[in-house]
Structures are given as structure tokens and as C-alpha cells.
Amino acid sequence: MKEDNKRRRKKICRFCADSEIVIDYKNQQLLENYVTERAKIVPGRVSGACSFHQRELTRAIKRARQIAILPYALTEM
Questions:
Q1: Residue 39's CB: how many other CB atoms inside 10 A?
Q2: What is the pLDDT of residues 5-19, one digit of tens each?
Q3: Are 25 and 65 in contact (CB under 8 A)?
Q4: Domain range for residue 46?
Q5: pTM attached to this predicted model
Q6: DSSP character string of 29-75
Q7: What CATH number should be reported for the domain holding residue 60?
Q8: Is 26 within 8 Å of 66 (Cβ atoms)?
């Protein structure tokens, strides 16, 4: 029997909670937290970012990929 009675805590957008964190395409360390090991963008339901900040994250990751700060995909070894 599944435990349906337990409720999960609602994820809080860390960018809404702390306004000092700025989403910038040049901030590689921040953007790497929102990309999987296969270089896919993590969805908002997993990352906990609100829809506004998730769109900003996606835009910043795509810009960072264009100027080769982040990889499009990882090469297999």
C-alpha cells in the first residue's frame, strides 16, 4: 500500500527567496546546478524554480551554450 497520506513540502524558488542571486549566462557555477550530467536542462518541477525564474534559467543556459561556457552534450568515452 502506498503512503498517500504523507504530503510533500512545497519547493520554494531559491531565486524568489534570495533576491541577491542573479541569473546570468556568465555564471557557470550557478548554471551547472540546473543541468544534468548529460547536459540536459533540469525541469522546474525538479529544480524547484518558479516559472519566471525557470524561463530565465533556460535562456541563460542556452546563451552560455552558444558561447561555449556550457556544453550542448557530453561526449562519450
A1: 14
A2: 677 787 899 999 999
A3: no
A4: 14-66
A5: 0.84
A6: HHHHTTB-TTSPBPPHHHH---HHHHHHHHHHHHHHHHTTSS-SSPP
A7: 4.10.640.10
A8: no
**Is the Cβ–Cβ distance between 50 and 44 less than 8 Å?**
yes
**CA dist., res. 41 & res. 33, Å (int):** 10
Q: Is residue 58 part of a domain?
A: yes
Q: How many domains does the chain have?
A: 1
Residue 74 in domain: no
Q: Which residues of the chain have pLDDT under 50?
A: none
* Alpha-carbon gap, residue 72 to 77, rounded angstroms: 16
* Per-residue pLDDT, 2: 59
**Is residue 71 in a domain?**
no
CA distance 53 to 71: 21
For 2, the grid coordinates are: 502506498
Q: Is residue 72 part of a domain?
A: no
